[in-house]
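Below is a filled-in request sheet from our internal design queue. Each sheet records the structural input a requester submitted and the sequence that came back. We keep these sheets so that new team members can see what a complete request looks like end to end.

REQUESTER: design group, bay 2
PRIORITY: normal
MODE: inverse folding
CHAIN LENGTH: 304
BACKBONE (tokenized):
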């Protein structure tokens, strides 16, 4: 049985369809004072999967997730699996400054305390966050789903010369995974400090494959269909910088891909203004750029 929270109802419906399972409905509303009402409408099974992202508004979506999990347990469900495609607060996995709250740890403890027996998410920003759980916790990759979407898109427009670019070295693993699936080269952008107050961002020589030391000159970006990939895009500043560099090196087109399209502060507008052809995100979060469905990836994981 599948239950979708307010933030992921469409995704939950598609997962239920993929699995041929029943979709249980949740009635939720706000009282005049802002408190939330929640009622699970349906006959429950012994095992239930709850799908609910905890993006903006994070606190409301998180509270709803906790309510659903705890209510299911109180109603007699024996096993509750929490699928949280995007986990809010996951970027604060340690104290960067004295006195800070380790938000990710608290969120994990709350989800577990509510009664979750298993936790699943996608491309969590720091995988060490899963160590805060004492229950089985999995971090799935959305790269196969994005690569499948891109493969169809590239075939449709006759683009036979793609290259995958990570906007920084930290995202290079995503670029490698994506390029291996698509069957193309990949590289990343790196910042080189030229002096105390001067930093230059440049393209690292293109890796021919992930296991080889062979490289080709960065001029090979010229005339290529560049695909930028990252896990999260928030304000878009890093991506705008990457687009500018790729255009400078003569990239023919630039598509921007990410797993979690947060896109705050007119991030999407800034990216398009910099020259991106498309912004392609998954439906881990609902936005105008959520073109890639995670339903099949979730369904496959639940079958395991």
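RETURNED SEQUENCE:
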């Amino acid at each position: 049985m599948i239950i979708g929270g307010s933030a992921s109802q469409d995704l939950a419906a598609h997962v239920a369809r993929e699995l041929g399972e029943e979709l249980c409905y949740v009635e939720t509303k706000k009282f005049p004072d802002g408190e939330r009402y929640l009622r699970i409408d349906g006959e429950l099974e012994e095992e239930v999967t709850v799908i609910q992202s905890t993006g903006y508004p994070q606190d409301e979506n998180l509270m709803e997730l906790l309510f659903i999990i705890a209510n299911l347990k109180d109603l007699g469900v024996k096993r509750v699996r929490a699928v949280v495609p995007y986990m809010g607060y996951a970027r604060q996995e340690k104290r960067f400054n004295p006195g800070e709250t380790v938000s990710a740890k608290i969120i994990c403890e709350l989800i577990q305390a509510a009664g979750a027996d298993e936790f699943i998410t996608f491309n969590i920003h720091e995988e060490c966050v899963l160590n805060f759980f004492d229950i089985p916790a999995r971090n799935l990759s959305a790269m196969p789903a994005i690569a499948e979407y891109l493969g169809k898109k590239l075939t449709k427009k006759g683009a036979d010369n793609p290259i995958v670019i990570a906007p920084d070295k930290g995202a290079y693993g995503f670029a490698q995974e994506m390029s291996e699936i698509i069957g193309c080269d990949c590289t990343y952008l790196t910042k080189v400090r030229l002096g105390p107050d001067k930093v230059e961002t440049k393209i690292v020589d293109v890796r021919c494959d992930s296991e080889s030391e062979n490289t080709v000159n960065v001029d090979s970006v010229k005339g290529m269909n560049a695909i930028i990939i990252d896990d999260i895009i928030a304000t878009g500043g890093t991506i705008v910088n990457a687009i500018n560099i790729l255009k400078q090196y003569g990239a023919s087109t630039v598509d921007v891909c990410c797993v979690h399209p947060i896109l705050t502060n007119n991030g999407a507008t800034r990216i398009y203004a910099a020259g991106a052809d498309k912004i392609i995100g998954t439906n881990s979060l609902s936005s105008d750029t959520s073109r890639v469905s995670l339903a099949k990836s979730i369904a496959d994981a639940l079958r395991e």
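SHEET NOTES:
- The two ends are 15 Å apart (CA to CA).
- The chain has a mean pLDDT of 89.
FILED BY: M.R.
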